[in-house]
Amino acid sequence: xxxxxxxxxxxxxxxxxxxxxxxxxxxxxxxxxxxxxxxxxxxxxxxxxxxxxxxxxxxxxxxxxxxxxxxxxxxxxxxxxxxxxxxxxxxxxxxxxxxxxxxxxxxxxxxxxxxxxxxxxxxxxxxxxxxxxxxxxxxxxxxxxxxxxxxxxxxxxxxxxxxxxxxxxxxxxxxxxxxxxxxxxxxxxxxxxxxxxxxxxx
Length: 202
Prior knowledge:
It is built from seven helices and no strands. It is an all-alpha fold. Helix 2 packs antiparallel against helix 6 (about 145-170), helix 3 packs antiparallel against helix 7 and helix 5 (about 130-140) packs antiparallel against helix 6 (about 145-170). Residues about 1-40 and about 115-125 have low confidence and may be disordered.
């Protein structure tokens, strides 16, 4: 009899453990299943902060590409600056397409003509967009001067983009937007360092 008591207790303990494990499993399963749909649907959902970042980063990227095109059209520009301009175009062109696709998925109408009057300061990117005068100076400069001017202007431009992306990391919710914001910070912070080094060597 005495020998059966530990066995019974052991069996009872095992049964209790299995029950508790079963409860734990059923307790985690609903949360897991509920989080999965929200994770998948969040890719197509957006908040005001998500939309603000995207609708402001698109024209910001577009201007960076325009600046790069101006530099690349110069015969005799510093080859290291030319390489950087090509790198910026290669990275930011696809990002623009990606962001335009998100806006379409979100049902947000994008009007490029209205972007010029938007307050970039609200996303931390104030004064980072080049003025028409800045763009004209870059266009009118000779290859040597344009190489230097491109670096000076693009450093400011990139710093504004990094500020905007950091604001998005703080306020945005969409996982795709957060991923792009982090990518902008990583890529453009590295490019800023490169441009500052190049500027010191020109």
